[in-house]
Amino acid sequence: CGIRGGKMLDFFTIFSKGGIVLWCFQGAGVTESFTGPVNALIRSVILQERSGNNSYTHEALSLKYKLDNEFELIFVVGFQKILTLTYVDKFIDDIQLHFRDRYKNDLEQKGALKLIQNNFDFDDDFKMLLREAEESSKARSHATMRTFKESEKSQKTVKSMIETKGGEKVKEPGGKKNKNTKKEGNHSKSPKPQKPKEKQMRVWDMGGSSTKEYAIVTKNLACLALRFTMNHCLALFVDFSSKKAGGFGGMFGMLKGLVGSKSLTREDMESVLEKMREHLIAKNVAADISSQLCDSVAKKLEGKVMGTFTTVASTVKQALQDSLVQILQPKRRVDILRDVMEAQSQRRPFVITFCGVNGVGKSTNLAKISFWLIENGFTVLIAACDTFRAGAVEQLRTHQRRLNSLHPPQQHGGRPVVQLYEKGYGKDAAGIAMEAIAYARNQAFDVVLVDTAGRMQDNAPLMTALAKLIAVNMPDLVLFVGEALVGNEAVDQLVKFNQALADHSMSDKPRLIDGIVLTKFDTIDDKVGAAISMTYITGQPIVFVGTGQTYNDLRSLNARAVVSALMKA
Ligand SMILES: Nc1nc2c(ncn2[C@@H]2O[C@H](COP(=O)(O)OP(=O)(O)OP(=O)(O)O)[C@@H](O)[C@H]2O)c(=O)[nH]1
Ligand SMILES: [Mg+2]
Questions:
Q1: pLDDT tens digit sequence for 109-126
Q2: DSSP code string of 102-124
Q3: Is the pTM of this model over 0.85?
């Protein structure tokens, strides 16, 4: 029967030229993964377009493969090379024809996503064809004389000497084939053709820049075969969890136009750059900055000769990635704890001013930073310089109480670790900040955190007031608090805040924004573009990332994660 017949083959797999496994079968009792042999075949034969007799050996395995260029499929069968399976060539042909016939419609609607979503339920057809192939080969071998080498007996005997993975010898009781296989069938599970499961889809790496050999991806991940010629193919791993295909898929799809023997001009790249720009904007990178980033990528590529699709795709990707990393890499490190200690040694408080537009999370993140400083053994004075918005002072008082209850004075020599300096509403914020700093100096507070009222960047009087507060008090650090939710607005906010600070500076070295607190990072999914916009505009680092509404939701920026989120389709 087909099940017994399955004994002869180690595996059979059908995958797209993009590397998506459509269907696969693993022979009964085969414990070795066939990942290694298939990857070896892809790397050393298929990708290098080495044709020939369509067979390949890898360790103890013989692999035969067949390419279907019309539907861009690859059929691979593997069996112990010690077996001389005369029916294999015809068998692959049969499988190919059958598979094509049966799934013609599905295969015609190309597109990786379609392939991935499709359930190629090919098990029964496969078993039937395998049975037929074995039967006819048996008939033929009975008709002609076999050499001992060709006989199944010799095959079985030799196979029995091959150790399986567990170190156990394959059972070989000798005798007739049927008996033999039955026995094997008893001690191992009956062959279960494995089809790509919904949650664990198999994807072969068909080249590209990554060195990943084999990936088991979750259901949200899919492999996009973007363009394929037999020697240049790229499998790009794309996260579809955002339910949005396109993006980079589309962009890299367009790269094929750039392959050629002449050097790249700006014109050649125009459409690709436009796609890339759209992609970045979709990730919330401000439009202007997206354009500038694409410009820098274009500059890196101009004049290069792109011999293959793989080179062009990985070069564009690399160029963009480098630019993004460069932007996020702080030119200057802000090390608040070190700076606070230095101020301590000078017997003065370290002063941080928080500014930004309304409702972005200034006060909340100020409280989180207080908590972090307290945890690090410092004392904090909060200066309530939002004398404008109703409830602003009470909001800070609530935080002060809560923080003191988390770190009760009795644990700190009877002294509250955090105190609020407030003068109610309507007063001049700059004056209160000054008094607070003087108070902190007298009372030996380590840090003063100055909360300011939210203000729109276009509100000239309020912007002037903020600039004055900063100019007269000369804080050690001016942190701009901005929401990760913003897109184009980020640029306008930062440009105008910096402009106001510069305009009202009283020194020739104006105090500008020194760092950024990027808030509500927990709410943006993978639209992390604001991180790029803000650092690009200011050239200043993101000092803190707010990731929620509790005191613990404060992080430092993970630049690598941001870049990879930006690169993701
Ligand atoms: N999810 C989330 N919410 C945040 C985060 N930071 C602040 N918030 C929320 O944003 C809202 C506004 O926070 P505030 O701290 O009052 O903002 P503000 O900038 O001080 O506001 P104004 O003083 O009115 O300008 C509050 O509901 C906060 O809980 C964050 O990182 N993640
Ligand atoms: Mg506030």
A1: 756 666 666 778 899 999
A2: HHHHHHHS--HHHHHH-----HH
A3: no
The structure tokens listed for 406 are 């988390």
Whether residue 222 has pLDDT greater than 50: no
CA distance 137 to 8: 12
In the chain, what are the helix, strand and coil shares in percent, each to the nearest 5?
A: 45, 20, 35
Nearest alpha carbon, ligand 1 atom 14: 361
Report CA(453)–ligand 2 centroid distance (Å).
6
DSSP 7: G
Residue type for position 503? D
426 pLDDT above the threshold of 70? yes
SS (H, E, C) 251-316: HHHHHHHHCCCCECCHHHHHHHHHHHHHHHHHCCCCHHHHHHHHHHHHHHHCCCECCCHHHHHHHH
Structure tokens at 469: 């507060």
Strand, helix or coil at 140? helix
Tell me the per-residue pLDDT of 474-507, one tens digit each, with 9 for 90 and over.
Answer: 999 999 999 999 999 999 999 999 999 999 888 8
Structure tokens at 347: 């017997």
Q: Is the CB of 364 under 6 A from ligand 1?
A: yes
**Selected residue with higher pLDDT from 39 and 439:** 439
Geometric angle at alpha carbon 126, from 161 and 231, rounded to 5°: 80
SS3 416: coil
What's the whole-number mean pLDDT along residues 91-107?
A: 90
Q: What is the pLDDT of residue 50?
A: 62
- Element housing 441 (H / E): helix 429-443
Cα(464) to centroid(ligand 1), Å: 23
Rounded to 5 degrees, what are φ and ψ at 306?
-105, 100
State in Å: Cα 318 to ligand 2 middle: 41
The sign one gets for the Cα dihedral 240, 242, 245, 251 is: negative
The C-alpha atoms of residue 263 and residue 267 are separated, in whole angstroms, by 11
SS (H, E, C) 15-61: EECCCEEEEEEECCCCCCCCHHHHHHHHHHHHCCCCCCCCEEEECCE
How far away, in angstroms, is 184 Cα from ligand 1 center? 67
Residue type, 369: I
Q: Which tens digits make up the pLDDT trace of 282-335?
A: 999 999 999 999 988 888 888 877 666 556 667 778 888 888 988 888 778 889
At position 182, the amino acid (one-letter code) is K
Pocket mutation for ligand 1, best pick of 360, 362, 363, 364 (most atoms within 8 Å of C-beta): 364
Residues, the chain, total? 569
